[in-house]
Amino acid sequence: MRIAYLVRKTSGGMQTHIQGLLSGLDRLSFEPIVISPHSEKLFSSLENLGVDYFRVDMADKISLKDDIISACLVASILRKIRPDILHVHGNKAALIGWLASRFCPPKCMVITIHNFLSGLDRNMGNLDQKPSALALVYKKASKSVLNAADRVIAVSTELGRYLKNEIGVRSDKVSIIPNGIDMKQWEAYRKSSFNARRILGFADNVKLIGTMGRLVPFKGHQVLLKSISRLIKKHSDMHLLVIGDGPLRDELIAQARALGISQNVKFLGFVDEPGQYLAALDVFVLASIAEPFGIAILEAMSLGLPVISTRSGGVVDIIEDRKTGLLVNPSDEASLADAIEELLNNKSLGKTLSQNGQKLVSEKFTIKAMVDKTCAIYNELMYDA
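^ that's the sequence the OP posted. Answer follows.
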């Protein structure tokens, strides 16, 4: 069965998802081919996996001219490779895939949604701001695009509810398949000789808090910086490690400076192997205002780190409060600071959360589970086609 994967320009959780899915496919049964904008990291991994790929650029924002050009290029590739299934990842790629399918219809189309739609309140972190007229038009268009697919996969229960109740995707089209990770890969970082603390200039006794994700409003970095500023007044030996990059980088650096904590915050940007740095942490924090899933939580749990996150989106599919992690309300800087301090002071609780988190990932959030459920959908659709 030939599967064409259409992917927008991506990094972080979506890229991890795609790489994991492709690595787990039974290549005797499935032939994957990827269509994507240029990504050195993604293309390198595809070459290592022996997966063919085509480069097609896509505009980051909605652009009628650029999107039609991209769709025509995708359609020409589809005519060439004749896939059984077109599996699209992401909202923007879904639009391009839908347009391309008008010119060259695949036998079946699957769309995996990884995030809330851009510009519609929660996704941008501006919860009190009304969506723009363009965003509302995009919402209507997305409803049509998603309902045109044979199946829509959501990576969390909350994202699935959102697609059905707020976007209007038919319930019978939506399937929930959580992200999965290669736990052995992440466990290996704990045993690595790479000493992140020494390389970054931190003493062994420094209290090191960390987070990982794109520097965008809905990830809640602004709230985390405020929480850290509260704690540093009592814990001068505390440092925050921020892994990831994005449009808010300069603003966050300025915020840290204004809060007087610049010396205690290190912005690493994107790094090729973030696990090497995460393994050095005492506590991992994800302060998202609205988190579609939270694959970084799984990665931190695999490393044996105690995790704190917000009660937002797909996080509640992963964390059970005070069992597999600590949960606080979004945008509550005081509660977040209290949770961080509790884990720093209560090693026994941290150990319990770490052990339960590792067990949860190994039982429920593996690449194999994700791949098996996805392939079951492929087989079901082709049987009915």
